[in-house]
Amino acid sequence: MTIEIKAPDFPESISEGTIATWYKQPGDPLKRDELIVDIETDKVVLEVVAPSNGQLVKILKEEGDTVQGGELIAEFATGDAPVALTEPAEEKAEAGVAEEPAAAGQETAAAAGDGFTSPAARKLIEENQVDVSEVTPTGKGGRITKEDVVNYLKAQQQQSKAPEPSAAPGTQAASAPEAGMMGERPEKRVAMTRLRSTIAKRLVEAQQNAAMLTTYNEVNMQPIMALRSRYKAQFAEAHDGVKLGFMSFFVKAATEALKRFPAVNASIDGNDIVYHGYQDIGVAVSTDRGLVVPVLRNAENMGLAEIESTINGYGVKARDGKLSIEEMTGGTFTISNGGVFGSLMSTPILNPPQTAILGMHKIQERPMAVDGEVKILPMMYLALSYDHRMIDGREAVQFLVTIKELLEDPARILLQV
Q1: Which of 151, 235, 286, 353 is positioned for an S-S bond with 267, CB 3.0–4.6 A?
Q2: CB hemisphere CA count around 271 (13 angstroms)
Q3: What is the pLDDT of residues 298-315, one digit of tens each?
Q4: Which of 9, 33, 288, 392 is catalytic?
Q5: Would the pTM of this model clear 0.70, i.e. be above it?
């Protein structure tokens, strides 16, 4: 029996999606709940799986096509018996399914077998004459994804930029241009992913629609670093291997400060101000696809270990594109850590409809005057961007000073003083 495969119904905040990767081609056998295709939306990647054992009969939406929730994207045949494919041979060839002879001494995507590469990956492989045996697959079932090929090409590009060891003294080895780019002034045009496009749109809107200001301060990280050093082994042992990081201290300091300054934990809805009686803290996570902000629900009720464990889990999900809409929806305050990339100071941009965001930065030893003496201390610059329509400068400064004081005396976090 042939049945229809449709795009899942999208949440209310998402209007459409884009076909990202087909993991199966017409004629490929499938087991129940086996992944067929990824659909990328503004926020997450949604997986479509096989409804039962059977095989894919026809693909109606190719990679890169825009789809609506509930739209027909493929046809599927139940059962284990082979089914005659409904697409003509020329359509199959255009989709990259037909095998092609490999170049002499090199294995192309088609020669490797269509069951092991996605169409987007196959196209890149053929355009750049990539030896698929050198590409490390990360897709399900050992499939080579588009990202695998892109990462391989980037690695090859970096290697080509390095001087050859055998180059004669006084000469410089020529470096090859980026794969797929030729000429003296090469350029490459790549369409934005849906997530990157949404990020760009939201950041521009945040700057245009809010009266955004940023206030700065600095915090001595020595007390927290000493605390971590003293108890990290016992902490990990007591909490099933969970490591004690810096982020949990910042989350706890933020939740306490938000209780004291409710305006910083509020949001603007049209002409209304919505004060939240809970602290849902968004933690910005960088991925290959772009920045995502999963949310710690009721962070005020979470302990340090639960915060660290949840953040680690979000990091893994973000890397694999498995974060759900619910895990990234809402949030009353956001923390972004540019310090992990070496940023010494930056101006974080608001995450609407929130009215404030805290930016962490690199810890750097600096000479500081302490009680008339110069001491070398591990210091971090803090930045608080806020919407001046909602938060006065006095409140913003006092909020940031409160976070600084709590971090420099961690016992105050536990005692809530």
Answers
A1: 353
A2: 0
A3: 999 999 999 999 999 998
A4: 392
A5: no
